[in-house]
Amino acid sequence: MADTPPPEKKNRQWIRQAVDFGALAAFMGSYFITRDMILATWVLVGASALALAVGFAIERRFAPLPLITGLFALVFGLLTVFTHDDLFVKLKLTVQNGLLAVVLLGSLPLKKYPFKMLLGSAIKVNDAAWRTLTLRYGLYFLAVAVLNEVFRSPAAVTALWHAFGWATPNPNDVWTSFRGVLWIAASAFGLSQVPLIMRNMIKDEEPGPVSPDPGL
To answer: Residues with Cβ < 8 Å from 176, sequence gap 6 or more?
Structure first.
């Protein structure tokens, strides 16, 4: 009889998803209650540190992708609170996802799969699946970087709203709401990859959803 994976191992990805969602909810809640982006960014910095600590406690190591996103959140969050300029926290998504897109899409002609290094401990699939995942996630990261440039720009947001005949919005309200929508989109995108993963698994192990961006 095959050994049954311990519940802690089977559920750890779900625990990370819950922690990440809680961190994003705290950031969004603090902003919409206070309408103070700098104060909300303090919450983000604390949440990012907590997410890294929980990830380490669960896995006894820093997993590469959560470590990258967590460090980006800490660096850009601290830049925001020390300079009192919310441009930095908004740029975080563009810089982080743009760099990931360049690395992943640029690796495809070389037949290298850095995404395997980032997520290889979470899912076990063959190289053909890694190539497909690398392409899909590379395009996803690129799309997020482009969309973030639109939604972080007050001029672009105002022009877009006016094109639909809507009243001029608060740009910070729009961007913060976009962060919430993005978390949902990231989770849905991760879940949409499960059929590909299941068809190409090389180990009898059921994966949880893998979110491209935990929302921080």
So the answer is: 27, 28, 31, 32, 37, 40
